[in-house]
Design goal:
homodimer; alpha/beta; 8-stranded mixed sheet; 42% helix; globular; binds adenosine-5'-triphosphate; binds magnesium ion
Chain lengths: 254, 254
């Protein structure tokens, strides 16, 4: 059975893409088949995995021009497939604006196409528009990366309200699969305060694993590599492996 | 005379808000009156300057419910005023979607209201929707913060195409006032490559000043302080002061 997780936070640069790529790669390395769905017009997931974004992408799937299967492609990593994205997705926000079912396009495409993946990780853009709405409407759960810096807490209330709206309108079963603290920099006195405050707000939902700020994670995508290829001994690699194991354990416990 | 600058880049977390707050504060410290206009529904500029976001905000001004003057408020910093933002702005994207003149709302409000500011710095959200279109249509120039990391270069082409579209549709005189390299981390071998590549792509437009990754800059907004209040001896403070002087020199040379 497949679990669909939207990795979302409208705050920019908090590690959504880095989490989708490396959590996806960790799950794949642990023999769990993963589909990464790139729903960000910037296509950072697509390029970060070293893939091209020509041919059928998430744009054609959202617009109903192609079935999901036509867009799914293999990556060089075993157990890891990708639905790529490119800048055409910017058009979807405008083109779908008048369609009352605009937020249910991805959900329809995923329901119509059973696949053998155990996990589907959807990378969202830094906004709460129609693309993120599609991801939340299609998802079983949301994973919220929160950067351990000041502005990181500002948007969380807005994100929670959006999740409520999506539950009310399209997806009553949408769960919070977890909150992952990212870009933790121990030199920043503020970072620990953010960790404490986030744990107070979200409680048990916050993963024990905290992803440190780690230079290796910033370098890896420029080579189209996951952190495991780039530097498996790094703190970044260990953190995403631990996060994958925690996510799998939470699923077993259900 | 007033110069209106949109600080824009759809890539998230590249230092747009940090640049608007601290470049604004540096210009104000150099006796140049500044208006900061927050056009991001996250309202990070508003909270980073220690201001509230109740009452009249950029939402009411864009919707034509209130004139610009009603939204402008003093901050505790001399020569620095603010048009605040809050999450109501999310509504503007949807409410204005059917208005053919949706992108010219801010321009209209600014033209209708001469002010004594020498600079207007507009903080944009991490997207290329109607809010950023309003900023670009109203601006004399664009300042593009680019983070010295891999994904930072990915979206630049898309941003340039958007600027072209805005020039063709609404604002033929829109200039590139400059590109500022931010979050430069000398431990990251990639950072220097990004600097070289950005200088090759943008040439003279790139400011000589490169803003280093500096813990003090990340701490300042949690106290509602500018970098100059928080730690005036820091590398972050020196960088934004140098950037302000460079921007002023470019304006004199015109
Ligand atoms: N733990 C980390 N350590 C060091 N660098 C990181 C880490 N996580 C992310 N980064 C870097 O920070 C930048 C932002 O990360 P990323 O692109 O994953 O964020 P995002 O939330 O997907 O951004 P956007 O909002 O634009 O989609 C990237 O340059 C990335 O390489
Ligand atoms: N030079 C710097 N050194 C250290 N931290 C920085 C620097 N510039 C920005 N930051 C921190 O990085 C994070 C992202 O910066 P900021 O919020 O200014 O980016 P942004 O482009 O405005 O983000 P968004 O796309 O969400 O609007 C913030 O936590 C900020 O404090
Ligand atoms: Mg991303
Ligand atoms: Mg910002």
């Amino acid at each position: 059975e497949r679990r669909i997780i939207a990795v979302a936070n409208q705050k920019g640069g908090v590690g959504k893409t880095t989490t989708v790529i490396n959590l996806g790669a960790a799950l794949a390395a642990l023999e769990e088949p993963v589909l990464v769905a790139d729903l960000d017009p910037q296509g950072n997931c697509t390029s970060g995995l070293g893939c091209q974004s020509d041919g059928v992408t998430s744009y054609e799937v959202l617009e109903g021009l192609q079935p999901l299967a036509a867009g799914i492609r293999k990556t060089r990593f075993p157990n890891l497939e990708l639905l790529p994205a490119n800048a055409n997705l910017v058009g979807a926000e405008i083109e779908l604006a008048s369609d009352p079912h605009r937020a249910q396009r991805l959900d329809g495409a995923l329901r119509a196409q059973p696949t053998s993946h155990r996990w589907v990780l959807i990378d969202c853009p830094p906004s709460l528009g129609v693309l993120t709405a599609n991801a939340l409407a299609a998802a079983d759960g949301v994973l919220i990366p929160i950067q351990c810096e000041y502005f990181a807490l500002e948007g969380v209330g807005e994100l929670m309200r959006t999740i409520e709206r999506v539950r009310a309108a399209w997806n009553p079963g949408l769960a919070i699969d977890g909150v992952v603290l990212t870009l933790f920099d121990e030199r920043l006195s503020l970072a620990q305060q953010v960790v404490t405050e986030v744990r107070r707000f979200f409680g048990e939902a916050v993963f024990a694993t905290v992803v440190p700020r780690n230079v290796r994670l910033a370098e890896a995508p420029s080579f189209g590599r996951t952190i495991f290829e780039h530097d498996i001994r790094s703190r970044g690699a260990r953190a995403y492996l631990a996060l994958a194991e925690e996510l799998m354990a939470r699923r077993r416990d259900e």
